[in-house]
Specification:
5 helices; 16% strand; Glutaredoxin; 6 strands; single chain; 30% helix; alpha+beta; two-stranded antiparallel ribbon; peroxidase
Length: 178
């Protein structure tokens, strides 16, 4: 099994096989419009602009499970992404990344790369540990802008926790796209 085996809902009500991205390096991100980390859209778009022609695809998955920081409809989210950050990478339909209704793609991503969320993540770790202690020490997504790096073959390579910026990921992307 690989990421390429999943089909996801598009923001316009259709569906897309992630097999369409075979041969591409993927960065899969759960995104939100009203989060302190929302400005990461700018860095993600910069990566996409710089590296898409070398084989990078960034796939955004809006999620409203973290203090309801993605309350809009799919159409409102698309409008926000385009008008606020000039996002040109695909942003799919809103999903759940934790709990009983976790999207199958995210259930798989979490299993393949459980993460390394710990005190070295500073303020966000302190907040999550205090507010949502049941998430600490699990494979659950801790917050918006968790990123998964996926190789050209669809294998999950690495998980980056939310405070990791797109710029910090660039060396790993450059190496995979070389």
């Amino acid at each position: 099994m690989s990421v390429h085996d999943f089909t996801v809902a598009t923001a316009d009500g259709g569906s897309r096989s992630l097999g369409d991205y075979a041969g591409k390096v993927l960065l899969i991100v759960n995104v939100a419009s009203k989060c302190g980390l929302t400005p990461q859209y700018e860095g993600l778009q910069a990566l996409y602009g710089d590296l898409n022609n070398r084989g990078l695809e960034i796939l955004g998955f809006p999620c409203n499970q973290f203090l309801e920081q993605e309350p809009g409809t799919d159409a409102e989210i698309q409008d926000f992404c385009k008008t606020t950050y000039d996002v040109t990478f695909p942003v799919f339909s809103k999903i759940e990344v934790n709990g009983p209704d976790t999207a199958p793609l995210y259930r798989y991503l979490r299993t393949e790369a459980p993460g390394d969320f710990g005190p070295h993540y500073g303020f966000l770790y302190d907040f999550v540990a205090k507010s949502f202690p049941d998430r600490v020490g699990t494979d659950e997504i801790k917050w918006n802008f968790t990123k998964f790096l996926v190789g050209r073959d669809g294998a999950v390579i690495r998980r980056y926790e939310p405070p990791t910026t797109p710029d910090e990921i660039r060396p790993d992307l450059d190496a995979l796209l070389a």
